[in-house]
Amino acid sequence: MDRDWDNLIILDACRFDYFAEHNTMDGELHRIVSQGSHSREFIEATFSGEAFHDTILVTANPFVEDIDDDVFFRVCYADVLDHWDESLRTVPPSAIVDLTVEMHKQYPDKRIISHFMQPHAPYIGPTGIKLSEQNQFGVFNPNKDELDVPDAGISRAVREGYVDPDELRQAYAENVEIAIEHAEQLVQRLDGRSVITADHGEALGERGVFLKHYGHSPHLYVPELRTVPWFVVPGNERRNVTAGTPASYERLDDQTRSSRLQALGYVQED
Fold first, then answer.
1. I need a labelling partner for 135 at 20 to 30 A (CA). Which of 70, 108, 177, 241 fits?
2. Overall domain count for the chain
3. Is residue 77 a part of any domain in this protein?
4. Is residue 32 part of a domain?
5. Calpha distance 114→98 (Å, rounded)
6. Exposed, middle or buried by CB within 10 Å (0-12, 13-18, 19+), for 126?
7. Residue-wise pLDDT tens for the chain (270 aa)?
8. 175: which residues sit within 8 A by CB, 6+ positions away?
9. Domain housing 101
10. Residue 141 included in any domain
11. Following DSSP, what letter does each residue of 105-156 receive, concatenated?
């Protein structure tokens, strides 16, 4: 938060190496270490207990509910979740683009953070959709009856052979491309200095302490989870930023929040 930017675009679960490979924008790419290997860990370490009254947060990540009302000037969260796509089981990136631009137009004197859910699963590119259709499960929440293994998640599904590791990596790469495409659209619609980064990375078969790891877990400090991009896009005009009085923001009810976390793979269904 102390770094120099007007717009901070966070791509959820975006690895440095995949961003470097698939990015086509002009700018300066740096490698940095995140404060967490999981969204909740990152949010707590970066935002909790702080005061950023010159900044608006637009986010689709349910762990934002851990943040107190007086941290940001405004938090655009419930409006984002209104755009939840049940068929995709996530918030499409186009909604984040539009709502971020709307917030900037409404508050042109504020810094803005735009937190996309992609490239985090569910995977919404062609390979991810094919995997979901073939296996009758959302990538992080497989149907237990189809897989015939208890409490199956993506890591176990790959280890048990239900999902090919290369197909999983291709599905993830497509989500990276989708995220970058929409981040570029957003950069083009905002003034000021924009930076694209990630809250954490994603393990795609790298070995953790004992087993090969897929996805992201808190307190798991392997390079693929902690190393993220810091991509600076020069802006033509800098923003005149002022602080304001923070306002409370709307949370989800417990049932809706639980279902969103299940869809994103953070908790298993009963």
1. 177
2. 1
3. yes
4. yes
5. 10
6. exposed
7. 999 999 999 999 999 999 999 999 999 999 999 999 999 999 999 999 999 999 999 998 988 888 898 999 999 988 888 898 888 888 999 999 999 999 999 999 999 999 999 999 888 999 988 877 766 444 444 444 444 433 345 666 777 777 889 988 999 999 999 999 999 999 999 999 999 999 999 999 887 666 777 888 778 888 999 999 999 998 778 889 999 999 887 666 666 666 666 666 555 443
8. 118, 119, 120, 121, 123, 124, 125, 128
9. 7-120+176-201+221-263
10. no
11. HH-TTSEEEEEEEEESSSP-SHHHHHHHHHHTSBTTB--HHHHTSTT--HHH
The dihedrals phi and psi of 141, each to the nearest 5 degrees, come to -135, 70
**Is residue 226, in this structure, part of any structural domain at all?**
yes
Say what the pTM is.
Answer: 0.88
DSSP 8-state symbol, 85: B
| Number of residues written out for the chain | 270
Which residue blocks in the chain are alpha helix, DSSP H? 16-22, 39-46, 78-81, 93-106, 126-135, 144-147, 154-159, 165-189, 223-226, 254-263
Q: What share of the chain is helix, strand, coil (3-state, %, to 5)?
A: 35, 20, 40
The CATH number that applies at residue 57 is: 3.40.720.10
The three-class DSSP label of residue 76 is strand
Token pair 């679960």: residue: 13
